Amino acid sequence: MPERIEKSLLLPKKYFWSGNIACAEGALQAGCRFYAGYPITPSSEIMEHMANRMPQLGGVFIQMEDEIGSICACIGASWSGVKAMTATSGPGLSLMLEGIGYALMTETPCVIVNCQRQGPATGQATRPGQGDMMQARWGAHGDYRIIALSPWSSQEMYDLIILAFNLSERFRVPVIFLADEVIAHLKEAVLVRPEFVIFDRYKDKEKPPFGEALIPPMPTFGEGAALLVTGSTHNEWGVRKVQDSLAHEKLNIRLINKIEANKKEIVKIEQYFVDDCEILIIAFGITARSAYQAVKMFREENKKVGLLRLVTIWPFPEEAIREAGDKSKKVLVCEMNQGQIFYEIKRVLGDKKEVLPLFKTCGEAIYPWEVMEKVNLLL
Amino acid sequence: MRQEWCKGCSLCIDICPKGVFLNTEEISKRGFKVIKPIKEEKCIGCLLCELFCPDLVITVEEIKEDLSPKNSRGYAGKD
Amino acid sequence: MSQSLTKYLREEVFPTPFCPGCGHGILMGAILRAIDELQLDFQKMVFVSGIGCGAWIPSPHFKADTLHTLHGRPIAYATGVKLARPDLKVVVISGDGDLAAIGGNHLIHAARRNIPMTVICANNSIYGMTGGQVSPTTPKGAKTETTPFGNQETAFDLCKLVKACGASFVCRYTVFHIKPLIKALIKGLNTPGFAFLDVISPCPTQFGRRNQMPKIYEMLQDLKKRALPYDKAKARTSEELKERIVIGEYE
Q1: Which partner from A5, A142, A250, C231 sits 20 to 30 angstroms from A260, CA to CA?
Q2: Coil vs helix vs strand at C169
Q3: Do A228 and C59 touch (CB under 8 A)?
Q4: Is C1 a domain residue?
Q5: Contacts of A365 by beta carbon, 8 Å cutoff, 6+ apart
């Protein structure tokens, strides 16, 4: 796989950035040179930062007329050989779903940042939420597998967006970056390292760009490849095959296997005090920060509480959850919604383990003492 | 004429000022009754058939040599 | 002059899926003839299309880079392509419903931005592929699947619309007026900014049959009858222009 070492764009040191700024800078470091977006709270700072930085780096910035135009322009740019990204929130992501489906079907690398807020609809535009987890998995119509990541700090907004681009290029799949309003606006120290590992898509004009290999090569427009990119069902060369049952099944299953077969490589989790825990907390994003604080405080009192943090949300870290779940007596799932990842965890752990929820959807983060309160009831 | 591409829409028949094209009973692989330039010798090279055929079936070629007695104008539909 | 268009075609996908007598087939030929006339580097062109019969003109028939996108969105995709690769020549070929109904927003903004691209609207005043529903360019009174009692809405004048947005080159021709159409396509392809061509390309199957013109030749004769050059149309009232199709470049 074509990977290279890139020197950092900025002077390697600590910066004091909000999550949104860190995200934008990380994307630029990953090689993103095309940004098309639409203003929406709480993601607009990413776009504004890109408006300033893209011209400096010889990239392209455009504020499109709507979110649909944004995702479409990104896909067009990606096929023109440029790494592309857009950032939005729940309502914008809802609009982009058809486009995301198109990127999935045509195997177009691109990154979509969702700074989640309280929904549905306009909801609480300026307040955090984690209610778009299932939308990231199933929002687009049809059957597919997608990659979604969940950062929990400004540092991760920087580091994980680079991972998002690398995964996107490597597996030719759109990657949804599930941040939330708190992480987007929280200002923290971000360490910029001197070097980064960057993946670029694999190119080969001679091989079919939509089949044969599990992850086919991806030529670029203007190289004489006479590319046939289409959202309709197609064969390995991109020729439309809408009446061909075999062709459709083959394509659909390969798109699923592309991610399924590489799950081990894609899935990322972090564990804190899990090995000897009695109560296992599972959380992600800003909620995991509170849960981590709670776990540290419990451990000071010698209470056996641990935290499994999901960094990759999709594909779902089933194995890690089972392993960690086995070690504990009870599992507490904390999320800022009314139960999305909770039911997935219940599905994975089955009846073997008691899985309990801590839901919150009032537009405030789950606080460490709220986690502690709930855990104390279980201990 | 790329006969395999003809769908028998008969626009060439309607548009040709000289009546070069005629319907036939011949059926193409796709199931269409093809049209052929039966009266090639009447062609005046106006190119309307080539420009209007929706299926890019027809290319009109100028025949300089081998002027048959019937084809005094020097044009013929290419087969 | 007679032109062999073979080098532009992906022959293995022919004959085309278009109906016998489809206006879009005529338009496809005209587009390739204009490109051939200009001797453009076909491999440095990107053809972007949406969903519909018109969008099937370039994809998969042209042996070049084609991007067959979502319904209504080719212009948004094309914006991404052109900005990322200004060296490539971007041509959008799509239908009236695709570009002016669901895609209307992208159309007006790209025209406003004057993004260098050539947009060819294969306008058959109907939603052909889905079985003949009304479109924003269907004339008042016409019968379609969703206007069985006659269309009660007024149609867009797409040229007026796009010109008002700030496009560099805007014109309308019909596939009957094949020679001026080819000339206009050449001019459009050579325009440094946003070029828009409203090409009336009739659909005998969905529109013609429902409106007393089941044959393509009849529809072409109707276009010939109703066409009125822009210069003459300028002097007429909107009442006089009701049944007419204004052809030529809009200023």
Answers
A1: A5
A2: strand
A3: yes
A4: no
A5: A128, A182, A286, A287, A290, A336
Query: Neighbours of A (≥3 Cβ pairs closer than 8 A)?
Result: C
Task: Report d(CA C206, CA C146) in Å as an integer.
Answer: 12
Are the folds of A3-199 and A270-378 the same? yes
Residue of B nearest to C30 (CA): B51
Assigned domain for C246 exists? no
Total-model pTM: 0.95
Q: Is C94 left (phi over 0), alpha (psi -120 to 50) or beta?
A: beta
Q: C15 and B5 in contact by Cβ < 8 A?
A: yes
How far A102 CA sits from the closest chain C CA (Å)? 7
Q: What CA–CA distance (Å, rounded) separates C28 from C115?
A: 23
Domain that holds residue C98: 22-225
- Candidates C9, C20, C178; nearest CB to B9: C20
Q: Is the Cβ–Cβ distance between C200 and C223 less than 8 Å?
A: yes
C5 at B interface, C-beta within 8 A: yes
Touching partners of B (3+ C-beta pairs < 8 Å): C
Contact C15 B7 (CB under 8 A): yes
Contact B59 C24 (CB under 8 A): no
> Which residues, 6+ apart, have CB-to-CB distance to C161 below 8 Å?
C100, C107, C108
**CATH number attached to the domain at A3-199:** 3.40.50.970
Distance from CA of C130 to the nearest CA of B (A): 21
Q: C21–B60: do the CB atoms touch at under 8 Å?
A: no
Number of domains observed in the structure of chain C:
1
Is C56 inside a domain boundary? Answer: yes
Residue C6 is assigned to a structural domain of this protein:
no
Segments making up each domain of chain A, as ranges: 3-199, 270-378
- Whether the ipTM is more than 0.90: the answer is yes
Could you tell me the fold of the domain covering A270-378?
Answer: Rossmann fold (3.40.50)
Residue-wise pLDDT tens digits, A286-333: 999 999 999 999 999 999 999 999 999 999 999 999 999 999 999 999
Q: C220-237, pLDDT tens digit by residue?
A: 999 999 999 999 999 999
CB distance C62 to C22 below 8 Å: no
CATH of the domain at C39: 3.40.50.970
